[in-house]
Amino acid sequence: MKRLLALAAAAFVAIPLTPASAFDGAPGAPGAGDPYFPNQGNGGYDVGHYDLALDYNPSSNTLTGVATITAKTTQELSAFDLDLVDSLSVRKVTVNGEAAAFSQSGQELVVDPGSALDSGEDLTVVVRYDGKPTHVVDPDGSRDGWIRTNDGVFNADEPQGAMTWYPGNHHMTDKATYRFTVTVPDDRVAVANGDLVSRRSGGGRTTYVWDAREPMASYLATVTVGKFQLVDKKVDGLRVITAVDPKFADKAANFAERHGAVITYFSSLFGPYPFSSTGGIVDFGPNVGYSLEVQTRPIYPEVPSDSLMSHELAHQWFGDTVTPTRWKDIWLNEGFATYAEWLWLDKLGRTPLQDSFDSAYATAAGDAFWQTPTADPGSAANLFNSPVYERGAMTLHMLRKAVGDDAFFRILRTWIAEHKFGNADTSAFIALSQRISGKDLTSLFDAWLFKPGKPALT
């Protein structure tokens, strides 16, 4: 949900690029072809793993990084791009152990390995870089990426913030596993995705190592730093890791324990929880106006309500485990998490499910709410507007009424099982719904997903 609410730096010199035409092959595309963010992601290779070694000084906002990227080429490559904003200076790049030429411009780091890479070739790219990271401003006016706080950084990357702190192939279709080795002053805590595997101190600094062993889209990665109270415990058999700013200590006294009941309930509906740990980060920082479903560890600017926490935890299935192929399909994240939120409030006895639907549907037919097609909101500026959330959730409620409870929840469980740790689009969800239900659902989805205007309740 994104809704508006020390390593020593070596003195390397950039190597001038040799024209790609000097070698066989062709340069990889500078973008993944997403119309909403044309320069996001890159072509010509597929990343399997990121090993990020980061040293951060919060007082000066200086970051020194070594990114080791393991990938495989998908075409013959004379050159390829990585996404990294040029406010961070690249000092050296190696490709398969050999120094490579590179250049930086805007959000593109262009790497020339010096000789063509064959299609299907294993690729290890090491990028050494440093600088003062900062956030980016999205088309809707919100900030994401490396957002400074009084004691560190609030790091939330949807939809384009990953390029503000590490180089990579930053479109959602190139998922990878991660290892984060983060060094910070002793009075700070560094929190990342996955499992905390070690913590060691020396010389006034502490290094935290986190492993995210399940594939993850880069917009769901985080390294968040602050003066946190870190809790690592078992809740209902699941490892829960939480980090809470001490300013919220009283309100967040049972924050870790609250995860158990939500995860248990959603597992009964959607299938087993897909990751090795869960938890969350509550960081007192700038008023970003949103929370984010960071994989395994959602990040909040305040202690979340039951409604908000259930929404972000539902994303661990819808958005994190199964991720859209294009940003226009974001309703597959937000509509599903909103419906799960309605289900949780109904389970708690707070708001009956039908009341949540009726409240959203009561929006006047002439309201602009009904003019945004749910499955393609039209531009990056509209990605996180309310129709994507509420109209998306209403679509699922109408689907449930059309096919019945048994078929509906089989659809959701099958969606997760068939696309686990991968990507899928709206057409795939429609096809699955029709296959399991045995019904022609064309008119339902046309009215609720693709056409402007308030659909009739038929």
What do these coordinates show?
Strand 1 and strand 2 form a beta hairpin. About 4% of the residues have low confidence. Helix 1 packs across helix 2 and helix 3 crosses helix 5. Helix content is 23%, strand content 30%. The strands form six sheets. An eight-stranded mixed beta sheet has the order 5-4-8-2-1-12-15-14, with no helix packed on it. The chain has 458 residues and is α+β, with helices and mostly antiparallel strands. It folds into two domains: 209 residues, Immunoglobulin-like (Sandwich), CATH 2.60.40; 127 residues, Neutral Protease Domain 2 (Neutral Protease, domain 2), CATH 1.10.390. The protein has eight helices and 22 strands.
Number of DSSP helices?
8
- What's the CATH first level of the largest domain? Mainly Beta
Strand order of the largest sheet: 5-4-8-2-1-12-15-14
**Distance N to C terminus:** 30 Å
The total domain count is 2
Under CATH, the topology of the largest domain can be stated as Immunoglobulin-like
Please provide the ordered H/E string of secondary-structure elements: EEEEEEEEEEEEEEEEEEHEEHEHHHHEHH
User: What is the overall pLDDT average?
Assistant: 94
* Total beta strand runs: 22
Structural class label:
alpha+beta
> Roughly how much helix do the residues carry, as a percent range?
10-25%
Radius of gyration, in Å, reads 22 Å
Low-confidence stretches: 4-23
Assigned CATH superfamily of the largest domain: tricorn interacting facor f3 domain
Largest sheet entry: 8 strands, mixed
CATH-defined architecture of the largest domain = Sandwich
Shape label: globular
How much of the polypeptide forms β-strand, as a percent range?
A: 25-35%
